Structures are given as C-alpha cells and as structure tokens.
Please model this.
Amino acid sequence: MTVESKLLRLHVNGAPIDVAAPAHWTLLEVLRYRLLLTGSKQGCDKGDCGACTVLMDGRARLSCITLAADAVGHRVTTIEGLVTSAGLDKLQQTFDEAGALQCGFCQPGMIVAARACLDRKPEATRAEIKEALASNLCRCTGYTKIFEAVEQAVRAGKAAHIGGPAAMAPTASATGVAR
Amino acid sequence: MSAAKPAGDRTDSLEHVRSPNRTFGPQPPGERFEVIGKRMRKVDGAAKATGEALYTDDLALPGMLHGKTLRSPHAHARIKRIDTKKAEALDGVFGVVTGAEMPARFGVIPWTPDETALCIDKVRFIGDPVAAVAAVDEETAERAIQLIEVEYELLPALFDPAEALARKDVLIHEGNKHGNVTKEVKLEFGDLAAAFAKSDFIVEDDYFFHGTAHAPIETHVALARFGSDGVLTLWSATQIPHYVHRELAKVLDLPAPQIRVIQPCLGGAFGGKSDPFSLEFCAAKLAMKTRRPVKFLYTREEEFYAHRGRHPMAMHFKTGMTKDGKLTAVDSKILIDGGAYSSFGLVTTYYAGQLLTGPHHLPTYRFHSTRVFTNKPPCGPKRGHGSVQPRFALEVQIDRLAEKAGIDPIEVRRRNFQGAYTTTVNGQRVTSNGFDQCLNQVEVASGWKARRGKLGRGRGLGVAGSMYISGTNYCIYPNDMPQAGIQIKVDRSGLVTVFSGASDIGQGSNSVAAYIVAEELGMRVEDVRVVAADSDLCPVDLGAYSSRITFMVGNAAIHAARKLRTQVQAAVAAEWGIEAERVLLAGGFAFDRDDRSKAISSAKAFQITEARLETLGTTGSYNTPNLGGDYRGGTIGASPAYSYTACVAEVEVDEETGIVTVPHIWTAHDCGRALAPVLVEGQIEGSAYMGFGEVFLEDHDVNRFGLHARPNLLDYTIPTSMDCPEFHASIVESLDPEGPYGAKEAGEGPLHPTIPAIANAIHDACGIWLTKLPFTPAKVLAALQAQKAASGGARNGASGNGAAH
Model:
C-alpha cells in the first residue's frame, strides 16, 4: 500500500539533503530508514522514552513525534553529527569514560539531550542536568554515571574555556547553534 | 560426536588427551594485575556513544520485507477458523503464516513445552499471537493483518490466580495434568514444629508482590534470511541465542547446522529476552516461505504483551526468632501467578524457595510454592528471578522480629550471619561470603548509628540483606558438556581475537572477556577484539541469565588464555635460552624477569611462538562442579558461588499525601573480586534503581477484561532522572576460590534488598508496615489511618500498627 511520497529538503548533520518519503513519516523514520542514520533509536514511537532525541536548531527534539516535513527549514543534528573531523564530542567521550553506557540504546538520545543542555547552560548544575534529561529514559544505569558523565563534560568545558573559547566550536557548529 | 556414554565413564580412557576443565584461583597470572580491577572503558563504549553500534533494528538487507503479528483480542478463546485469503491478496503482501504451519511446541525449559510460534487451537491472553504477515513495508503488513479473519469461541477467562487454582471447569492448558497448576514444589528441611515451639517471637502475615515488566528501551526485534545455500540466519535481540538456535531447529524442522543465530548489540534485556519469542519463528518461517529477508520489530505495546516479567506472588510467611535474635524457622506458602504459559516457571517455582537460605542462617525451613496459569501475559525471569519477591517478605519479617526482640535491625542480621564456607539447610554449598562486610559498609555509609530513629517522625532508615547465585548447576537441558566456552585466535599482527558465545546485553561481558585475555597475555586491551554470540563462529554459551556469565565465561576465558600464555612463555624462553617462568607478559611486551632490558612486543612473542610451535589458537571451557542437595530439585539454585548484598534506604513519608520520597539508597555488594569496578558499580546502581521503580512506580497488570492496563512507557512509569534517589554503590571483595580471579556475580543480587530496605525504612519513619507492593500513596495513607484508628486501643503488634513512635 503505497502512500504518496513527498520530496523534502532537509538539512541534516551539516549538509542539505533531499529525501522522498511518505508524507506521514516521522523525522525518525526518515533518519533511520531513508538516510540510514541508525544512531537515533526507536524505543516507543510515541514520545515517551527519548531514545530518538535529535537536535533541531540546537534544541532537543523527539524525532519520533516530529513529522519529517516539520524539519524542513531547520538544522537537524543526530548523534552521528556530534562526531566531527576534530573527533568525538566531549560528551561522547565522557559518557564512555564515566561508564555511563551499559546497553547503550538510550545513549544517543541521552547524549544529544545533554548536548542541548550544555549548549544552553555550559555550567549546568546536577539539578539542571537531571531536569534536562528527564525526558530520556535509561533502564540500565539508574542515571548516576550519566550525571557524572555530563558533569565531567561541564568541568572539561570550564577548563577548555580557560584555554580558549575555540575548544567548544566544533560542537557548536555541528548543532547549528553557531552563527 | 560418538554415542553418549554414561557420565561416569567419560574421562577414563581420554585422560591423555583431555585438557583439564578447572578454575584458577584468585591470584593474577603475572606479578600483579595490570587490567583486572582497573577503571577501564568498555570495549564498545565509543561505538555506543557515537551511534555506530549496530542493534538488530539497525540492520537492513536487500529486498527485506517487514513483518507484523495479528494478536488475540480475547483473553481466552478457542480458534474456530482462520481465513487469510484477503490478506494474501493484498498488493505488497509476500507471505502469511498461521500456527498450523509451525505446530511443534517449544519452551525455554524442555520439560514444559507449551508454546507454539502462533496459536493453533486456542488463545490464552489478550495479545497472544495468532498469525503473521510479511509485506513490502510495515504499513502494508499492518493493513494485511487486519484483513485476516479469525472466528473465536469465547471461553471463561481467569485472571485471579486463587480462582485459577480452585477452578477445575476452566482449563487454560487442557493437556496439563494438574488443572491450572503449572508447577508445585514442597520442600521441608528440619523440624519446623519444634523450631517454632522454642521461638520466643513469631510473626506470621501475608505479603503481595505485584507484577513488573523489564521494559528494556529496545523492544524485541528479529531479522531472518534464508539463503540459497539453505542456511537460515537469524539476527535477534535475544539473551539466549543458543536456546533460540535449538528451538528454531525444532519448530522449523530444519537441521540445526543449517541455522545460524546472531545476537547483535542488544538494547537491554533484564531477563525479558531469555525465552524464544514468536517473532523469531515467524521471521524465519516467512523468510523461508518468501525467500526474502524478513524483519519483525515489536511495538512498545507488543513488548508489554510478550512480557515474561516478574511473577506476582501472594506470600504467606511465618518466621520465628529467639529473644537473643537468632532466627529459628521460616515457613512460607506462595501462590505464583504465572500468566498464560510456562516459560521459566518451573525454575521460578523452585527459586521462590531455594534462594532464601542465606545470608542468614536458617536452621529449619519449609516452603510450598505453587505456580498457576492465568489468562494474562506470561511471566518469566526478571532480574533476581523468583527470589526478589520472597526476599521482600522475609526481610520485613526479620525487622518485625528484631523490633519485638528489641534488637537493632543491622545487629540482628549480624547475629544470624551464616558465615563463609558452610552449607545451607537446603544443601547449598557456600564458599566466599562477605555479607558481614556489606553490612558494615552500609551501616557506616548511611550514618546508621547516629541517625536511625533520630530523624524525627516521617523520616527513617531501613536495612535488608540478600544473596544470589553466580550461575547455576542446573543446566536447562541435561548434558555433560561445558556450560561456557571461549576460543582464542592469534594474528601475526599481534591482534588476538576472542570468540565468546556469551550475550553482551549491556552488562559488559565482551569487555570482561577482553580484559581477562589481555590480563593473561600481558597485552593492551585495544589489541584484543571480541567476537560474540554468533553460532557459526563462537563456542556455545548457554546465555545471559542466572548471573552466570562473569563466573562461567570468565573462567573459560582464563582457561583458554592461560594455555596460550603457557605456550608463549615456553616459546620465548626457548628462543632466549632461559627458563619459562622467567618470561613475563605484561603491558604489551614479553620480557625477562631477571633482565628487564630484554623485551619484545606481544606481536613478536606471538610470531616466535607460531614459528616454534604451530598456528596459534586455544579453547577454554567451564563447567560447574557437582553441587546441590540430594533431593529432587536440589540442583536448582545450587551455584558455584553466591553473591551477597546489604542495603540501607532512607525515606521521607509525607503523611498528608502518602507520597514517599527516597533521598538515598546505599548498597554494598560482595561480588568477589571486582574484575571491572566501573561495570560492577553500574550493575549495583542499576539494580537499586530497578528495585526502587518496582516499589513505587511500576505495576504490570490487566483490567477486568484481561487487557493490559498500561502497555506504554507513559502509563507504565519507569523512573526518570527526576525520580531517582542518590544511589551509593560500594563493592566488597570476598575473593572466591573458584570464581575467575575470585569474581562472583553483580548483575542481579543488588536488586533484592532494595525493596525490603525501603519497606523497613517506611516503618522506621512512621511506624507502619507495608506488606503489599507497590507502595502507592493510597496504601500509605490507608496504613496511616489504620495506625491512627488503632492507636486509641491496645497495641497488639498486629500488622499495620505495631510501632512505638
């Protein structure tokens, strides 16, 4: 049963791309099944778990309840987009270092949500981190090591800031926040 | 293999070729541990953090079709007729399958095969799979299953296990010998009447543990391909690829060598992926029928129907104690709500009793557990399988008795500590046991002595203890072969590949295998690669259940790597003209102990070894010693080593709203040697988290029609980052003589005491005993009201009002 597809001009991970997809497809479906960006996960398909979180213009967004058509005209960054030629995003490193990853299935969404938080509040406190991640369910860790990973990134960000503001630039440009 | 011989004969004539299957003790292979016990990154951490890691649903094959399952809308009904013609005729549909095409019964426990891939004659719960479709896309498959016509004859449905036990006129499985009873176990150890007679205090009351779900963030998913070579390959989100392999062969009627089962990266399991599931058979069958790859991805709702979550248990417990605080006897009667199929229920029914005989010394013990079928999603093993529920009842009763005896709850547990190197009343061999140290750690960490009873009304501290198995002697299908195996291959580049049958479900078993092999061979972990859970490539491992992998696969990994280590040491020694014991392997080098300037890289050492010996590759295996009591069921729950946990919870009870908050949970866990402390801490924190969620938030239940009450993650509330207490994990290392470098399990044990510790803390806070989970605000308020009503009258110590606040 083919549903009529629409041609969508998206902007994903720093590049424009044209995608044909059924009009009712979500951004998550287009990312996973058309663009093969399988880092964003489907855990519930109804906005309850957060595993599909991506950045839209730098803000955390649940891609499973966002129509792909609604992403037109916005800059979308997925977990894959946080990796640049400069290497892994600081959060991707600290999640690994802190042991925040068990099964890892929620982590792409979690890391993206944490990135949105730190881009807005580079010195986020634990209370602010908890609140920023409240839409992202993790079933393995009890969140303890996730909080520690984000706090490590906060500390590293402060240290990097002392060294020079350019240290955060690759992430900012990847998220579309950079102007 | 040649024809099987009696077990007693099997080694005699083979001793000259047999490689001993043994354990290696807690000491490092070299001078000191280089990798083990260090705070390491996981081998797959970066891949998971970047989204590179491929989970089953991330895989796609050319020409792949998408499958959907038609499920029963009725809780109990006979299938009179299924007509699939309209579905087959729909454009875009490539295949339809019904139960009649896969009639072989299966079950993860070979003694209770009561499932079929799709229902044939009857449906037994709302959501039971009836037919399946493979189509060009999910939407078409979804439309097609709606075109399948099924005629049902409705049958009375049973949702209450007590009713299911009593009714003889409604049978959920007609062929079952004992009505709706799936398993009944009665075991008695010692003279209970005498023990209760000499008890100074006895408590006897009823407890209820509700159903809870695993709710892994990744739902069930399977992808099958039937190649032109006749090989069926199944990629599945399973934690038991070996049992899936066996059951696929049976149900599909294919020779097992023609089947390859691969478990890709797995997005959480917790016991929920340790049965073979309908979608694995349907994907395979439809791939065979259509000759195209077929993928099934369960929706979140379907994941709740597939279930196998924690069994609801109604538990009557009676426990005695002397006035000096010694436990005298425990007597329990447990009714277990099994749901519609057997699943692991045979084991659950035993575990509900068998795993309670530590860390406290029980001199006499009796349990009588009965599991019954109901018309609900089938229950199975969830983290702490079978023993989390009765542990709740027992640990609350211990606190009630301690209060009567006027003894501090931590002190009373100290007085009953069973100790190390002992045998339990039900015949389980106990080796290492660090429970006393666990108690000490949570006592200090929580400020117990200074704070308990002094926090003021509404705030309290509670404690509980527990034990759990590190794998079990009971192999699911009887055989004399090893329970775990490892194979090692060496490349001339210096890369070592470890082939492990074990399922890494996030707990980090691939990382631990790499750490062990790196430790044994003195290599950098980056130069060890692990290939896992692929039946074509890896030796058999039984699966990620019963907390068996670190212990069993760890020992197998040491076994395989130690052989290679010995070869490398001998070859390098010969090359250098020194004794083998002088060759040390560490940090990516082989060097001479007595002349440390003499060093070569691991790669060079492997090349020398290959030149002097042969192509390099070793195997290792592990099997349990003979364990368990000498009675029917005595091996179920018999483990080569037990882990121990103590937990203190702090609570605040809002007596206006009934809302309980938990600011802190301190958990100390004896895991033997912590091979990877970061992973152990993660298991402790994650276990405490899961227990916390079960106490307050989670409730897997059906409505009066048998429809799942909350089959989504909005209504089935698992704890968010805002809900959780501060989890404080500490590790106790009572080195086990048989564990790999002394290690024991860490994945399931730490969940157990969380729940009773919270119950006991609530009592400490406001004097109420909560006995029925989950502890909703309504239940808290009701207990507080009962307490208030009773406070005018005589204090009689009955449940709900015995407190002295």
